[in-house]
Write a structure and sequence with these properties.
single chain; 223 residues; alpha+beta; four-stranded antiparallel sheet; two-stranded antiparallel sheet; 6 strands; rod-shaped
Length: 223
């Protein structure tokens, strides 16, 4: 039988003992004993030892052909059948994945709500422009609404129910009513409050929400 199951790459004689390279200790002992039984030519060191060794190992099926690639050595201390993952290792991997998902899924859920609410800010851009334009003409105007500002909401979108202008020109207000955002509790409302910075010049808008937690609001609307 093939002792060691390894590839034998050659041999040489040193003193009265035959040594074989690339072989474990058990295989060296078995091949050495077998070679010495072959006859006095091995004991006396006569003949082409490498050629005789190759013929011997081939005829006795002690090793694969010398032209074949060597067999990969086993890991120290492990049986060839024990090189896969253990149950403990698999459980650790599953636990790590579960922890990552526990943190990632809620964060992604909040992000989706913020994106849907944020759509209202884009849709309200026209209402802000209309309110700012009419108030620049008459800063004393009170009872501001969609009609007075010359603004008409184009109609509900998947996440924006309505946009309403109110207040007075000294502090115009644009309210965004959302829908289908997935936020817990009542549908989020976004309030944009305007303030003229230079009299009839530039207007600044502050974004707040009276009924929505900060985690669901776009960053510019968080208190």
């Amino acid at each position: 039988e093939n002792p060691g199951g390894l590839m034998y790459t050659g041999c040489h004689r040193k003193g009265k003992r035959t040594f074989v390279r690339n072989m474990d200790v058990a295989a060296v002992g078995a091949i050495d004993a077998a070679l010495l039984k072959r006859g006095p030519e091995f004991k006396a060191g006569k003949g082409n030892l490498k050629r005789e060794y190759a013929m011997f190992t081939t005829s006795q099926n002690l090793a694969p052909s010398l032209n074949q690639a060597p067999v990969v050595a086993h890991h120290p201390g492990k049986h060839p059948d024990d090189l896969g993952f253990t149950l403990i290792e698999l459980m650790i991997v599953v636990a790590v994945i579960a922890i990552i998902l526990t943190m990632a899924i809620p964060a992604y859920y909040d992000y989706q709500i913020r994106v849907k609410i944020g759509e209202g800010l884009s849709v309200a851009a026209a209402a802000k422009a209309a309110a700012g334009s009419v108030c620049q003409e008459d800063l004393t105007l009170v009872g501001l609404d969609n009609v007075a500002a010359g603004y008409a909401f184009d109609g509900a979108t998947p996440f924006v129910l309505d946009i309403v202008i109110s207040g007075q020109c000294s502090q115009p207000i644009v309210t965004i009513y959302t829908q289908n955002t997935g936020a817990p509790g009542p549908a989020p409302e976004i309030t944009l409050t305007g303030e003229f910075l230079d009299g009839y010049g530039r207007i600044s808008w502050e974004c707040t929400s009276p009924n929505t937690a900060n985690q669901f609001l776009p960053s510019r609307c968080r208190s």
